[in-house]
Structures are given as structure tokens and as C-alpha cells.
Write a structure and sequence with these properties.
InterPro entries: Catalase, Catalase_AS, Catalase_clade1/3, Catalase_core, Catalase_immune_responsive, Catalase_sf. Belongs to the catalase family. GO terms for molecular function: catalase activity; heme binding; metal ion binding. The chain is about 25% helix and about 15% strand. By secondary structure, the protein is an alpha+beta fold. It folds into two domains: about 325 residues, Beta Barrel (Catalase HpII,  Chain A, domain 1), CATH 2.40.180; about 100 residues, Hemocyanin, N-terminal domain (Up-down Bundle), CATH 1.20.1370. Helix 4 crosses helix 12 and helix 11 packs across helix 13.
């Protein structure tokens, strides 16, 4: 007789004892390939919908070029990176950009309150570089194992096929790190006026590496030269009543009349390492790097000057991945970046096919020599052997035939890694509430009013106990924030303030006392300091 299990398991029936964290070497990573629970979860998630994208289904794209300034903060860019695309001037690198919404289906309105995807493919002379991010510089979660849960909560109810406010807030109530993103999303910043007047960000933390093998942590940002403009809920509803694709129309109309959209490409830099002096972990993508400490440094510009000639071939089949980097740009141990690097390319192989990189929209530019030993697979239509011996699709060859390895760089970047393998909850969490409160206080009055109205309206549709917990969270971000939402939603603020701490969570504004190491033997946990 089958077990009537009341706890979470994998599809193999194994108990899931920690659904909050990937297994990493130490608290800050890196993640390991034997993350079976995560790999099973994320690869199943990648295959939940066909043929449109599971997320970012509604989108528009355009072609353009990138030009590097050759400097970063007044110094030669080569001081920080050996990536030619960032340190060589006088080169116009071809690009393709896809803008999108996240949660809606392919034909959903572009006025939806939703993060906007900002995916950029640089077709450099050294191969493709994909920078895949959004418009808000941060994200809801900091561990990739939570991504399927987050999207499931934000997508329509599997029973009613309706997006329900209570599902969204039920997830947020259990993840205080999401409060920062939610504060942005429920404000007018959650509905950009169009794609041209919208910021972009890589969101994740990467590394720049120079010719000496020295690395700096880096965040990438796009600043629109057209300025930034957002919509209130009422303004968005008025536009939606006339045009559900207004942002796509605006983008293509601007290009057609020669008003080419332009963005300045900027970086924030930080010394490589844990940076323990900061109140937040710079690898935590639910946090912004304060710009007064880490200013935006211009490195180049992007111009979009050509609309696609065919939507399906160029926009729908365009495929991006966070693992697509050029030499001089490297991974950090950002847990979202490591998880996305598996998930994005895995999704493209499933959605478009194993040979998606042979499609012209995704292939490197003709001037970039590329040659692999990969063969066959569904829809293969050429062999990218690059002039090598077609008989030899392996390496090395004793006979000296076929492809050889590329020359080694003079000084490779090597990251020391030490720690106990396990599932860790982060210790630096005090800013989960602080940055959300700071963002609330820096909004203009009209932005705060729209934010309060949007959240209050949502909470009226939520169960009373959930609405109380959300107000509790918001009050700890900023007392005025929580009070105004409570007033707007008709919630007893004193009753909300009296709620106990969430089980297993530190008090708002406090860090965890030590690493939370949730698997392994008691001896291993003790050795890890847990």
C-alpha cells in the first residue's frame, strides 16, 4: 500500500528536507554539479510549457550596435578587463535585444504590472556575449532553487487559471528578501511607459578579469538616453483599453522615423571577495549596490537602428543564456547566476531545439571563427567544422587532424574555494527590510500613493491572516509604509504588529547568528560551525 505522504518529496519519492537552498561549498558557494534536487526541479520547470517561453513569453526585439568608450571611470578599461568588446574603441559590435514581460502569456498586454526582461546579445569578434536581465536591477529571490516556486505563485492558479493576489502575497510573506523587489514592482516602476524609456540591468553579479588574472566584482546597467518614464495603474488601464501592444508599436515606430533608441552602458565595480564590511552580500541579487558607494561608470553605448524582418525567426527564436560569456568576463558565485546558467540554455535546447545556435539570430557573427565537434541532433543543417578535417569529430588526435585547443591565456583567473558542502541559509540578511524601506522613502509622493493603492487593493482580496503578515513585513520596512497600507486595506495595524516572528527567520533588521547548515551528519554540521 502506498505511503500517504504529507511532506514534500522529489519525483523519485525522496524526502526534500531543505527546499530553500542549493548545495554549495560554504555559505557563498560555488554550487556543485551533483545538486540533484535542484537539477531535477529546474529542468522539469523548463519543460512545463510548449512551445512559448515559460516566462518572458511576450516580447519585442530590435537590432543595433554597441560602441565601447575604452575607459571605465576615467581609466583605461583594460585595467579591469581583457574583454575586447569593452576595451577596444572604434568597433561597432552587432547586437540584438529582446524586451519582454515575465509572467504573462505571448499575447498578454504590455501594460501589465510585471518586471520587464532586458536581454542583450553582443555578437563580438571573440564570440557571443549574452547579458540577460531586467529593468529593476534586483530580483525577488537569491537562490535559484526557489525560482520554480516563485513563478508558480505568480502564474495563474492551476485550478482556476486565474492570477490571484493571495498566491503572490503568500509567497512573498515567506520570503522577506522579496520585499525590496515588491516595493519597486507595486510602484509605478512596475509599469514602464515603453521599452525606450526603460532602464536595464544584468541583475546578477559577474566578474571582470584583466590580462594579469585580477578580478573585480561587477554589475552591468543600461541607462536610457531618452530618460526614464513609468505609468500609474490608471494610466496603464487607459492605454490597455486602446492597445495591448503599445510598447512594441512605440519601439518600431521610433526606429522607422529614425529616432533610434540609445542607452549608455555602465558598470559598478567592487573588489573581489566577501566584502564583509558591507551590511549586504554583493552576490545577493535582491539587493542593490548603493550608487553613492559604487557609482555607475560609463563604458559604452548601445543604439537600436533596425527592426526585425520576421518576428518568429528573429524575436521568437532568439535564445539567450547567462552562461554565454567572452574572455575577460567571468562568473561569480551568485547562486541565482549559477542556477540561471544551467536553466536558460537547458530551456533553449528544449524549446527551440538542440541546434538553436545554428539559427542566424543566435549564431556568432561571420567574422568570428567558430568550430566545434558537436554533431547531429534535431534540425541540424550544417557542420560547423570551420575547415577542419570532417572525419575527426574528437580531440586530441594522434595524427594531428581535426580541431585543436585554443591557446592558453597568459594569466588565468583562479578562485580559491574552501568550505563544507551543504545547504546554507545566508547570514547577511539585515538589509532584507532596510533596502525596501529606503526605497519607499526615496519615492516621490505620487509614486508612494500609487504603491500604497496597489498593495492595499491586493490585500483586500487576500485571507485576513495573510494580509496581517504582509502589513507586519511592510511595517518593519518602514512604519509609515506599513501604517498606510493597513489603513488603505482596512487592516488592524496593532494586531499585525503583534504577530510573532516567522519560524526559522531572524528578527527584521538582524542577521542570522551563524550559518544554517541543514544537511549532512551532526558531526559535519558541527564542523561547519552550525
Amino acid at each position: 500500500m502506498a505511503d500517504d505522504r504529507t511532506f514534500l518529496t522529489t519525483r523519485q519519492g525522496h524526502p526534500v528536507r531543505d527546499n530553500q537552498s542549493m548545495r554549495t561549498v560554504g555559505e557563498r558557494g560555488p554550487a556543485t554539479l551533483e545538486n540533484y534536487q535542484f537539477i531535477e526541479k529546474i529542468t522539469h520547470f523548463d519543460r512545463e510549457r510548449i512551445p512559448e517561453r515559460v516566462v518572458h513569453a511576450r516580447g519585442a526585439g530590435a537590432h543595433g550596435f554597441f560602441e565601447a568608450y575604452g575607459t571605465i571611470g576615467g581609466e583605461p578599461a583594460a585595467k579591469y578587463t581583457r574583454a575586447r568588446v569593452l576595451n577596444e574603441t572604434g568597433v561597432k559590435t552587432p547586437m540584438f535585444v529582446r524586451f519582454s514581460t515575465v509572467a504573462g502569456a505571448k499575447e498578454s498586454p504590455e501594460t501589465e504590472r510585471d518586471p520587464r526582461g532586458f536581454a542583450v546579445k553582443f555578437k563580438t569578434l571573440e564570440g557571443n556575449w549574452d547579458l540577460v536581465g531586467n529593468n529593476l536591477k534586483i530580483f525577488f529571490i537569491r537562490d535559484a532553487i526557489k525560482f520554480p516556486d516563485m513563478i508558480h505563485a505568480f502564474k495563474p492558479d492551476p485550478v482556476t487559471n486565474r492570477q490571484e493576489a493571495w498566491r503572490f502575497w503568500d509567497f512573498v510573506a515567506m520570503h522577506p528578501e522579496a520585499l525590496h523587489m515588491v516595493t519597486w514592482l507595486k510602484s509605478p516602476w512596475g509599469i514602464p511607459a515603453n521599452y525606450r524609456e526603460m532602464e536595464g540591468s544584468g541583475v546578477n553579479t559577474y566578474k571582470l578579469v584583466n590580462k594579469d588574472g585580477v578580478a573585480h566584482l561587477v554589475k552591468f546597467h543600461w541607462v536610457p538616453k531618452q530618460g526614464v518614464r513609468n505609468l500609474t495603474t490608471q494610466q496603464a488601464q487607459e492605454i490597455q483599453g486602446k492597445d495591448v501592444g503599445h510598447a512594441t508599436r512605440d519601439l518600431y515606430d521610433a526606429i522607422e522615423r529614425g529616432d533610434f533608441p540609445e542607452w549608455e552602458f555602465c558598470v559598478q565595480l567592487m573588489p573581489d571577495g566577501p566584502n564583509d564590511h558591507l551590511s549586504f552580500d554583493p552576490l545577493d541579487d535582491t539587493k542593490r549596490w548603493p550608487e553613492d558607494q559604487f557609482p555607475l561608470l560609463p563604458v559604452g553605448r548601445m543604439v537600436l537602428d533596425r527592426a526585425p524582418s520576421n518576428f518568429f525567426a528573429e524575436v521568437e527564436q532568439s535564445a539567450f543564456g547567462t552562461g554565454v560569456l567572452v574572455d575577460g568576463i567571468d562568473f561569480s558565485d551568485d547562486k541565482m547566476l549559477q542556477g540561471r546558467t544551467l536553466s536558460y540554455s537547458d530551456t533553449q535546447r528544449y524549446r527551440v531545439g538542440p541546434n538553436y545556435l545554428q539559427l542566424p539570430i543566435n549564431a556568432p557573427q561571420a567574422q568570428c571563427p567558430f568550430a566545434t565537434n558537436q554533431r547531429d541532433g534535431q534540425m541540424a543543417f550544417y557542420v560547423d567544422k570551420g575547415g577542419a578535417d570532417a572525419h575527426v569529430n574528437y580531440e586530441p588526435s594522434y595524427l594531428g587532424r581535426g580541431l585543436n585547443e585554443a591557446p592558453k591565456v597568459e594569466k588565468e583567473y583562479h578562485q580559491p574555494v574552501e568550505g563544507h558542502l551543504g545547504r546554507y541559509q545566508p547570514t547577511r540578511v539585515s538589509d532584507d527590510y532596510a533596502q525596501a524601506g529606503e526605497r519607499y522613502r526615496t519615492f516621490e509622493d505620487w509614486e508612494r500613493e500609487d504603491l500604497i493603492a496597489n498593495i492595499s487593493g491586493d490585500l483586500k482580496a487576500c485571507p485576513a491572516e495573510l494580509a496581517l503578515r504582509v502589513v507586519w513585513h511592510l511595517w518593519h520596512c518602514d512604519q509609515d509604509y506599513g501604517r498606510r497600507v493597513a489603513d488603505g486595506a482596512g487592516i488592524d495595524l496593532e494586531k499585525a504588529k503583534a504577530l510573532p516572528l516567522l519560524p526559522g527567520k531572524p528578527a527584521p533588521g538582524e542577521n542570522r547568528k551563524g550559518p544554517t547548515y541543514t544537511d549532512g551528519t551532526p558531526e559535519h554540521r558541527a564542523a561547519a560551525g552550525a
